[in-house]
Specification:
Oligomer: single chain
Shape: globular
Structural class: alpha+beta
CATH architecture of the largest domain: Alpha-Beta Complex
CATH superfamily of the largest domain: Creatinase/methionine aminopeptidase superfamily
């Protein structure tokens, strides 16, 4: 990883210097940030480091400051080590990334800014808590600076791809154990705890709130309160891991012998559809077109399994697939689960036009080399949305309501992988560890 990181930090520092030059700035400071307390409380909220800091430095501790300035041999890292016996303090252990920085240790956050700010020079800061920097003459980084960084973040370096690959590998270990426990009859909460055990993570370390849902709970798209409930027939798990700040986002759906045969057939077919869509992640492809293909494939599947009648074209024209598949095909992934730049047209921050047929999409851009995206088609039986079809006389007649009612208790299906777009063809970072 050391060689990959050195290449990464060299490229990203050069890009940052080019941004500074374009904005007529002399130096850029990036703070990792500090945790905020809960309202009317002295307990801190869960701390997550500023992703722009993690983009340059893998240490996820609080209070660190990175300085990028023309003429420096290396970026300067002001590493925060407070004199604190109440809390564990970040330490500088021998790590692959340390040689890439000029490191200065400090222990008082209130006093560091007067020492490091280059007064009289044009300075900008990216920070969740920019107050001390602003007092010393820094300006909060402009939207132009942020948008250019977001644009560069959207396509990944070899180092970043390896971090996402490792995050997939770790999550896959948890997914395999989760499936085995489901088939043994374990509860939702027991599976969630064992997922964390297998990935070596605390709940605070996970990239997002995991979804561990049995049966009808799988129709709640963001069901995030696993309970003592034991399974009847179906299991949906949407859970990832993190490595050096980089996320994985993986979903699998499983059934046991109690599942309705049509639901089991839907799962088998959706898995094939998902694999086909992963193979279409290619440089130059518009992500919106992948969404349209997924929508059409869901319409075909509804007809093939006799959940719906008519033609796929008729279902799409009446927007019926949306009832069964009410979310986007996926999103960029990296330091954030829903990573930046998904709607960005260029480095200047112009936004892609939102398509009228899919006004909810997070990802609109044309796929570039080394973009990493999720591909996550789904098919759900959501009572609230199905009721809308029942009261529409034009749509009502196109649904096999008897079969729909039989499938309601089984919830829903989603399958999700993380895929890299490459000129030679897509690379699936998930399937190499998890079928």
């Amino acid at each position: 990883m050391k060689d990959l990181f050195q290449q990464h930090i060299l490229e990203k520092t050069q890009q940052a210097l080019a941004i500074l030059d374009s904005q007529k700035l002399d130096c850029l400071y990036i703070e990792s940030g500090f945790p905020e307390n809960y309202y009317l409380d002295d307990q801190p909220m869960l701390f997550k480091s500023n992703p722009h800091f993690l983009y340059f430095c893998p240490d996820d501790g609080q209070g660190h400051i990175l300085k990028i300035e023309a003429g420096q041999a290396k970026p300067k890292l002001y590493f925060y080590q407070p004199n604190d016996f109440w809390h564990e303090v970040s330490s500088l252990t021998d790590s692959f990334w340390q040689d890439s920085f000029d490191i200065h240790v400090f222990n008082e956050s209130q006093k560091i800014w007067p020492e490091i700010a280059n007064k009289g020079r044009r300075m900008a800061v990216i920070s969740p808590n920019p107050g001390h920097a602003v007092e010393q003459g820094c300006d909060p980084a402009s939207n132009a600076v942020i948008q250019q960084l977001n644009w560069y973040r959207s396509s990944k370096t070899a180092y970043e791809i390896e971090c996402i690959r490792e995050a997939n590998k770790r999550a896959a270990t948890g997914h395999k154990k989760a499936k085995a426990l489901f088939l043994e009859g374990a509860s939702e909460i027991a599976i969630f705890k064992e997922f964390m055990n297998q990935t070596g993570a605390r709940e605070a370390d996970l990239p997002y709130n995991s979804i561990v849902a049995f049966d009808e709970n799988a129709s709640i798209l963001h069901y995030q309160t696993p309970k003592q409930k034991t399974p009847h027939a179906t299991f949906l798990i949407d859970a990832g891991a993190r490595y050096k700040g980089y996320c994985s986002d993986i979903t699998r759906t499983h059934v046991n012998d109690n599942a309705h045969p049509v639901f089991a057939a839907l799962l088998t077919s959706l898995d094939l559809i998902q694999k086909d869509l992963c193979q279409e992640v290619a440089v130059g492809v518009e992500y919106v077109e992948l969404q349209r293909k997924a929508f059409s494939k869901i319409a075909d599947l509804l007809i093939e399994t006799k959940v719906a009648f008519g033609s796929a074209e008729e279902l799409v024209a009446k927007n019926i697939p949306f009832t069964f598949y009410p979310h986007g095909l996926g999103h960029p992934i990296g330091l954030q689960v829903h990573d930046v730049g998904g709607k960005q047209l260029n480095p200047q921050g112009d936004i892609c036009q939102q398509p009228s047929d899919f006004p909810f999409l997070r990802t609109l851009r044309t796929i570039k080399e080394n973009d990493v995206v999720t591909i996550e088609p789904g098919l759900y039986f959501i009572p609230m949305l199905l009721e809308n079809l029942k009261v529409d006389p034009h749509c009502n007649k196109l649904l096999n309501w008897k079969l729909v009612e039989e499938l309601l208790p089984f919830g829903g299906i989603r399958i999700e992988d993380n895929v890299v777009a490459r000129s030679a063809g897509p690379e699936n970072l998930t399937r190499q560890f998890l079928s």
